[in-house]
Amino acid sequence: MTLRLRTFGAVYLERDDTPLGGAHSQRRRLALLAYLAAAEGAAITREKLIALLWPESDEASGRHSLSQLLYALRHDLGADAIVMDAETVRLNPAALPSDTHAFNAAMRSGKLEDAVAEYRGAFLDGFHVDDAPELNRWIDEECARHAHACARALDRLAEAAEKSRDWHRAVDWLRRRVTLDPMDGRATLRLMQALVAIGDREGALRTARVHETLIRDELESEPDRAIVQLADELRRSASQPAPLQPLPNVATVPRVAPSQPAAAPEPIAAPAVRNSRWPTRRSFAQWGVAAIAIVAVTALLVSRPGRPASSDRAAIAPGATVVVGDLQGPDSVLALAVREALRAELVNTKGVLLTSDAGIRDLKALMRLPRDSALRAPQLLALATRSGALVAVTGSVLPVGPGAQIVLELLDPRSGTPVRTFAERPVDATGILPAVGRIGRAIGAAISRTALDTTVHPLPAVTTASLPALKSYAQARQLASSGKRPESVAAGERAVSHDSTFALAHYFLGDALWFIDQQTHAEAHLTKAYQLINTVPPREQLVIRARYEQLVLDRPDSALVYWDLLHDASPGDVLAFEGRSWALRALGRHEEAAASADTALQLDPTALVPNTNNAIYSLLGVGDTVGAMAIAQRVAQRNPDALLEVQFIAAHSRGDMARALIVADSFSDATARAWRRHLASLALADLPAASVAIDTMRLKNNMAFVPNAVLNLGLTELALGHDRAVAASRARETLEWVRQRDLSPPAVGRLAERIAVLSASAGDEATIRATIALVRERDRGRSLRTYVMTLRTLDAAHAYVRGQYAEAARRAELARHGVYFSRSLATIVQLEADARRAAGQAAVADSLERLIATHQIVDGNFEIWAMLRAVGALRAHGRPKIAAGR
């Protein structure tokens, strides 16, 4: 068994190419090993190590801590791994090799390709140790030093390739060079020239677009003129692409002989470009968008001409859409895990577009088949034909002793004819995932007609060597697709218990836990996935970074850049459009969010959730009920509640509460019925009916609706002139509800703003102050954008309750110039209107209230707008004449 320390990118110990978790992943343990590894066998004094790792400890406790750590390391790694005496400690590179030592040795000997092969990311990227400032400073310095060294090596390798006119190699080296410093104009220009030389003008233009975006957004500067000029020249000289030819029958396509690639053109010359400043490790963290941009430009966008794969039966058209069916076998969990690994391999194959699994689920529901049953070949072929797939994958997984027999077949959906067959028979469990990886790459090569990469990969794209972890992960995804999120979380936790370095399982858990309001736990898993990001393929890197930026760092603008990069890399990727719609909604760009979600629905009509909701809710947020109705009608057969949602809001907006109540009772879900009846009852001033609806929601234990319903009731009571103390108690009840739950920043912000506005109207300063304290406690000094905006509203409410109406109006006006996910701007406008009226500015107050009444306030929470509009009518005219209820 071979141990090795990895320090470039994610830092971890590995045994036989498998990352080790548990105690091996403790931060001070890894920090000590990394520091000793960087010393390359030199002895380090114990005093130096204590000062770095335990700077706050006295000498005795520091020596004790170091001795305990060294004892644990020698016990786990072997006594010969660490050599020490009473005063010094050193690492034995022969017993514990590291990529740091290998990198430095290769650089000294001039083996530059070996050196850059070791450099898989920034030194100790994202790693730090609490209460160890000197150590963290050392990490920053080492990060910059190694990045400089790698950049020099890549420059020299690229220069050699350029001189020999090996433009493909030049592209390989230059794309890595630009990854190190995305702001470097000279390296970007050289990459563009090399891409042009291999005939990839579109790749050169995409490289220019990414560079220009980063320079403008991150540095607030203009991009280098030479890059702009070259991009303009490429656009002018680009010819129109040839029309796509109709695809012949896959079963009858003859073999195609390998063709010689055309000679590469000379690179286009351009003026010199200024060099950018070199970023430190902290700069890389701040410029997260920049750090990944070149990954999309190079690893995903740059393709090299390859030979069509030969076939014993037929060739397959390039760029084929593929549906992966269920795999047969007596061990359904094993078959599910193999299918998951296969999909993960294919989704990262250029030229392959996978259909959504939602189509298989819908077909099973239509045929009244159990979700865990397998579709037979005729059913799969029919599904593939309807979804426009050119290839269907089916097969079986049979346990054979400790191993398995895996047989997969490619079928032509139009004829049902088998096109290719692939088989592997791993002898034990450890060989199953590598076998799936080999089959997946062979299938990807056949489908995309690229030359098969025969390089031995230890893992498939799911990035775990643990078959039990993959089984649990596959079960978690299956449960989530069935709407069973709590059960899926349990399965996901089992996956990471089997393999704590399984990045995609951590990502899945972070995403799932966010949906069920376990924010702290979600952040922990997404952070872990982010720390392991270098262990996943480029596509998954973009996805992890996007969700980490939005859900952990509360930066939807950065998340949007990553989703855009994913779209540029894979224009047909439905997830890119889905992710864009989430980020755009958080940025208040509702029309764009609706368009992105609608595109996702068109690309994959089976992917209803959340694309239908994102499209409809975005359009309703800007008052476009016609557009929302059109989408709802399009999906009505598969998602009838979406149509009911739009019909309810349309009736509510018109003031037709009789119709609204009829629509409310048509919802199939009891909570959905109760929530809509609650909203309609409030508009009719029927407080008893609204209260009954809240009780129904409490019985169903639905966390999403109850707090908003309680606040709605309090605001309506105030509008009808009821006791302010009762309304204040509603605000306090909701604040306590928020305090007891682990909500995301947007969820906390939405409720905190509504609590403060209700408390201000009720004259309850204490609750506003308590709400401000709660928001600051949740922010923990991070200054997350959502909490910054929320506190502005709370400050306005605080000024209002203290009688400082002019100041309250000023602060409210400032607060409403900003959005986060589902923020109710109408709530803040109403607070400003109340403050203006109290300050004697009745005309301004009237104009603001008209904006609410006519939906001229673009609101991310259309249901709260509808409720405020109804409350405004009650305040102006009193109890409506329409009878409440039926």
User: How many discrete structural domains?
Assistant: 5
Q: Shape, please?
A: globular
Strand content: 5-15%
Strand neighbour order, sheet with most strands: 8-7-9-10-11
Structural class: alpha+beta
Question: Mean of residue pLDDT?
Answer: 81
Please count the beta strands (DSSP E, at least 2 residues each): 11
Put simply, the count of helices is 39
Low-confidence stretches: 239-318, 881-886
Rg, Å, rounded = 30 Å
| Share of helix, binned | 55-70%
Largest sheet geometry: 5 strands, mixed
Alpha-carbon distance between the termini?
76 Å
Describe the secondary structure blueprint for this structure.
Layout: E1 3-6, E2 12-15, E3 18-19, H1 27-38, E4 44-45, H2 46-53, H3 59-77, E5 82-84, E6 88-91, H4 99-109, H5 112-118, H6 133-163, H7 167-180, H8 185-197, H9 201-218, H10 225-237, H11 281-286, H12 288-300, E7 321-328, H13 332-347, E8 353-354, H14 358-366, H15 377-386, E9 391-400, E10 403-411, E11 418-424, H16 432-448, H17 467-481, H18 485-498, H19 503-515, H20 519-531, H21 538-552, H22 556-569, H23 574-586, H24 590-603, H25 611-621, H26 625-634, H27 640-654, H28 657-664, H29 670-683, H30 687-699, H31 706-719, H32 724-739, H33 745-762, H34 765-779, H35 785-801, H36 805-815, H37 825-838, H38 842-853, H39 862-877
Parallel strand pairs: 7-8, 7-9
Antiparallel strand pairs: 1-2, 2-3, 4-6, 5-6, 9-10, 10-11
